[in-house]
């Protein structure tokens, strides 16, 4: 977990650093189970299809699972997905990307092994603003339950001292889902967490963070962007954000943050599978939920 500013408190229950389950792969050579494949377009806004395989053959790859259930068009010698069920990019900067348990895949689908409980998400989207979105929130409760590559993550949940209710809510949600250990989760107002390295990525725009939102320098407002990285809307008091990002390939950090305590509370309340499903990130303001990136005027 990256170092955070002073004034942060570790939450109880799941807030201690866990020992990584190194070498304890969850996938087995004889096969695995409970693998979900979701296919969407436009940053999760439109569904193409979804299925769950109760049992998966041994040594299965992401590509083979996809080809078994969808009509897949390939190019570049079969290593690049061009279309799924006839849906393909209509512009030069519009392609298929895939995520396993909410983490951008570091290599091609034909070389990525499937493990128990994996949630595989394919999405066709515009990459004009960034060709890398290192982590997304729309497969929650993954990667908290199964991690990546069949291994769970070591973690610490860290909360600013003035967001006790939100911190308790986040801790309770993770515990209720049966998460014994989780990866990095930072809970706090933007003014509290902005000095963290992972938070600073957001201020550099989606090209650095993969998150289509950024806070004002003092954290009093949250600007929401479209797929091209252009400003669509700015929200102020009570604005919250649930997002995940990483500094390069590797373990992501989740942010539950906002312009003020009310915004953090609203973001924490949205940390549920139903609220986050198929969203790359989610902005909130009270009961209003705004999946990111925004599309057009809102």
Key traits:
7 helices; five-stranded mixed sheet; about 300 residues; Chitobiase, domain 2; 2 domains; disordered N terminus; alpha+beta; about 15% helix; Ferric Hydroxamate Uptake Protein, Chain A, domain 1
Give the structure's gist in a few sentences.
By secondary structure, the chain is α+β, with helices and mostly antiparallel strands. It has two domains: 8-20 and 138-292, Chitobiase, domain 2 (2-Layer Sandwich), CATH 3.30.379; 32-126, Ferric Hydroxamate Uptake Protein, Chain A, domain 1 (Beta Complex), CATH 2.170.130.30.
Q: If you had to describe this structure to a student in words, what would you say it looks like?
A:
With 298 residues, the chain is an alpha+beta fold. It has two domains: 8-20 and 138-292, Chitobiase, domain 2, CATH 3.30.379; 32-126, Ferric Hydroxamate Uptake Protein, Chain A, domain 1, CATH 2.170.130.30. 16% of the residues lie in helices and 33% in strands. The strands form four sheets. Strands 1-10-11-16-15-17-18 form a seven-stranded mixed β-sheet, with helices on both faces. It has a five-stranded mixed β-sheet with strand order 3-2-9-7-8, with helices on one face. A three-stranded antiparallel β-sheet has the order 4-5-6, with no helix packed on it. Mean pLDDT is 84; it is low at 1-30.
């Amino acid at each position: 977990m990256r170092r955070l500013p002073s004034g942060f408190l570790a939450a109880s229950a799941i807030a201690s650093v866990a020992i990584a389950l190194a070498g304890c792969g969850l996938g087995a050579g004889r096969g695995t189970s409970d693998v979900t494949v979701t296919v969407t377009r436009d940053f999760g806004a439109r569904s193409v299809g979804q299925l769950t395989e109760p049992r998966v053959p041994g040594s299965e790859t992401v590509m083979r699972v996809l080809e078994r259930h969808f009509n897949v068009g390939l190019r570049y010698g079969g290593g690049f997905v061009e279309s799924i069920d006839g849906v393909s990019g209509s512009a030069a900067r519009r392609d298929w990307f895939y995520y396993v348990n909410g983490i951008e895949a570091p290599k091609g689908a034909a070389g990525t092994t499937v493990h128990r409980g994996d949630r595989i998400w394919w999405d066709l989207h515009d990459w004009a603003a960034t060709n890398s979105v290192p982590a997304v929130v729309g497969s929650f409760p993954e990667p908290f339950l199964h991690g990546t590559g069949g291994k769970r993550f070591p973690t610490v949940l860290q909360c600013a001292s003035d967001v006790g209710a939100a911190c308790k809510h986040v801790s309770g949600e993770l515990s209720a889902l049966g998460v014994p250990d989780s990866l990095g989760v930072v809970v706090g107002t933007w003014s509290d967490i902005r000095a963290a390295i992972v938070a600073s990525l957001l201020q550099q725009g989606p090209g650095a963070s993969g998150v289509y939102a950024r806070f004002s320098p003092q954290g009093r407002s949250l600007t929401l962007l479209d797929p091209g990285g252009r400003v669509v809307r700015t929200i102020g008091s009570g604005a919250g954000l649930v997002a995940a990002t990483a500094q390069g390939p590797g373990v992501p950090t989740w942010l539950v943050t906002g312009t003020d305590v009310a915004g953090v509370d609203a973001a924490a309340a949205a940390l549920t599978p139903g609220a986050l499903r198929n969203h790359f990130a989610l902005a909130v303001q009270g009961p209003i939920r705004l999946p990111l990136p925004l599309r057009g005027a809102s």
